[in-house]
C2H2-type domain-containing protein
Amino acid sequence: MDRDRASPSPSTLPESPGHNSPGSALLLGLKRVSVRLVDCRKTAGQSGPVREGHEEGDGDLISSSDTPIRRSLGGKGLSSGEPQQHPVADETEKSVSRSEQLKKHQQRGIGKKPHHCCSDCGKSFTSLSGFIIHQRIHTREKPYCCSQCGKSFTCPGGLKVHQRIHTGEKPYRCSVCGKCFTASNTFKYHLRIHTGERPYPCLDCGKSFNQSCNLTTHKLTHTGVKPYSCVQCGKSFNQAVHLTTHKLAHTGVKPYSCDQCGKRFAVASTLNRHQVTHTGVKPYSCDQCGKSFAVVSSLIRHQRTHTGQRTYVCLCGKSFALASTLTTHQRTHTGEKPYSCDQCGKSFAVSEKLTIHQRTHTGEKPYSCDQCGKSFSQSVHLNTHQRTHTGENPYSCDQCGKSFSQSVHLNSHQRTHTGEKPYSCDHCGKSFSQSGSLNSHKRTHTGEKPYVCFCGKSFAHLGPMKKHQKVKMCRISPPSDPAPFPDA
């Protein structure tokens, strides 16, 4: 008690610039940074040490003047020359090489955290280095460049993780499943798959997530905010990565190709999901009917067939189970066709239709029959073709029992029972049960003859041309001696 009463206050400590004291050792390590140390015994909540009746301003403990170091260590003056070992002194005499580190240490002692606030977005940081790295998001500065591929990064840690792509190094291995990772944070998120840990709950609906970024994205579903818009079609997204992926649909660029079937994709993750279909593995099963799926999103869509849930409703009253299906449907009202072919200019309402159309220019037929080798430009055509081998006719008429291999054939057949003729000629008003019949009829008005025989004669319909060829009314002569053609 007597020793405590005899302890000088921080403001009355003598100067000790040259004695062999703990304070002088600390002074040598400061690299000529002028600071003023505080009493580390101060309790949290105080604004700062009192000096000559005045409070230090808002915790800013960096001095701009060259003042000697003044301290009180458990009541012992630094100028006394006594080599005291004290817990508080041990904590204070850390190796401080920069003013920022000393400032952090002082603020920890008084229960305050450093605070660096971004003027652009308002985000706060406790470390200056983290604040500087964050600011590069706004300035788009990326000073760390990969020497192999040229990709740049905002921080050295990002570059280090990226370089493992080139070296193949994956230092983080899961002891449960054996999967390896290049980055520690990816490894950490993966472990939560095994533990089931979801530490980030949504306060609005209670749904939990294993990553904070997933929670942030999820919150936008409650607010409805979609800050990322496509300049070409106006479609909005709640994530920048979704906008980037969407933009590829306009360009038609699909850089990721399946090495088994040749199908191409705009996004690597979509290719990865597709490749599971070749393995035959279907780990996601419906608990109501037992049907299995290779991708969890397919299971979610399937489960809505049991619940009948159609939460997305168009202004016309039609409802849909998926938001994407509603968006596509709405284009039938607006007439919007945002996906254009760069070769012929034809436009489409759905990106998949553009992809299929582009194969008419490239001649690409990525879907092959494993029984006869015949190739097709669309998977649906392959599925239909395979029924010629299996004899399967899954579409049956509920009135006469006749079966068909394609649903479109069943629809046409059913009109023979109902008498429905939905296709009408806008010239004469005649109606037809099939669109193909209407197209053939229209040629009687236009005079169009699109079917041309080898001999040069044209026909409005395919049937008459074939008849013309079969009854040998067509005589093909050498170009040097053209023969007259009898009337068909």
